[in-house]
Amino acid sequence: MVGLYWEEWEVGREWITRARTVTETDMVLFTGLSGDYNSLHTDEEFCKETQFGTRVVQGTLGYTIASGLVYQLHLYDDTIIAFLGWENLRFTGPIKPGDTIHVRIEVTERRETSKPDRGVLKRLLQIINQRGEVVQEGIQAFLIKRKPQ
Fold first, then answer.
1. Separation of alpha carbons 70 and 104, rounded Å
2. Closest to 106 measured CA to CA, from 12, 8, 4
3. Residue range(s) defining the domain that contains residue 128
4. How would you write the pLDDT of the chain (149 residues) with one tens digit per residue?
């Protein structure tokens, strides 16, 4: 399967992923993998006294799951060259164990590079919970292959 070439990404076009519930197991495995043992993620009793009232999922786990959900759309298969980074990544609300999230992406910019075989694509990524609340958002930039001549 081949994903979209740079020319096929239209500014304003959007996609919505399927949803996925973030589980306790996701949090435990990610905590061990990342080494992020912050009390906000690991100590329920501590968290009862915070504004969240319970543990919250690591922000990095949120956008890691989002990345997997977007990958399942197969938009970049064999056409992505590199992920260039985040602009204005914001955590606008918590993701809690048991929340179900999905992702909305929208193409915000497309520009040529000095090399004719690639272009830069920017997209807004929003992680949305089961209540329709945006809990994370930011602009991502990618280097994408152009259609072969």
1. 9
2. 12
3. 6-145
4. 689 999 999 999 999 999 999 999 999 999 999 999 999 999 999 999 999 999 999 999 999 999 999 999 999 999 999 999 999 999 999 999 999 999 999 999 999 999 999 999 999 999 999 999 999 999 999 999 999 88
Question: In this structure, is residue 36 part of a structural domain?
Answer: yes
CATH of the domain at 10: 3.10.129.10
Domain count for the chain: 1
Decide if 87 is inside a domain: yes
The whole model's pTM is what?
A: 0.94
CB count in 10 Å sphere of residue 131: 9
The DSSP call for residue 115 is S
The DSSP string of 86-113 is EEEEEE-S---TT-EEEEEEEEEEEEE-
Report the distance separating Cα 68 and Cα 50, nearest Å: 30
Q: What is the DSSP string of 38-89?
A: -HHHH-HHHHTTSSSSS----HHHHHHHHHHHHHTTTSSTTTEEEEEEEEEE
Classify residue 38: in a domain, yes or no.
yes
